[in-house]
Amino acid sequence: MKALEGYAAVVLAAGGSKRFGTNKLLLEINGQAVLGHVLDAVLQSGVEEIIVVTGPYREQIGSFLSGPYGEQIRAGKLRVVYNPDHEHGMAASLRIGAESLTKSPLRGVFVVLADHPRLLPQTLVRLAVEHRAITQKDEFAPVAHPRYNGKKGHPILLDGALIGEAIRLSNSDQIRYLTRRYRAEELIVDIPTRDIIDDLDDHADLKKFQGINRPAKPILPFIS
Question: Domain extents for the chain?
């Protein structure tokens, strides 16, 4: 069995990019849009389903995705949904994304931030491998959190049992309200690379990320 069988991803791409004055997710790093770097990593990881949640830039993002990711969209592997409550933050986007999942049952759902252009597919696989190892022992791992050099990062992995709770998030909630509820049972997974903590926050980050390199076809571990 592949490590990512039974796992899906909700990619949160509904931000307003106020610090940039334009949609930062479509800015290019080494010839590829920021969002493209993230989606490539998620697709290469082997998840079964990807939901991209958009906000004020939904038309731009939809137009971009219809090109290089048109095949995945037509196959139903990748779906784009709109969050009309995007101004209320990421919890509202997670709610919309969780509601839009079609695969069932799911072992887990990755909550992926779309402004992490260094995200590696190996990171998602590692989280899934560790999560599945716990659940195979009939133990509960409600939230798997990656950590680099003592600092937690993204994406987080929610156990499939928490999808209902994600759907019930209100506009006034924050995602951390959900994760803190299960802090005592949280699974911490140490990751050897910075991809989980490096986000695109300002123009200085954009320059820093220009050196990004990612193998076209990474070799990924699987579990049986």
Answer: 7-206
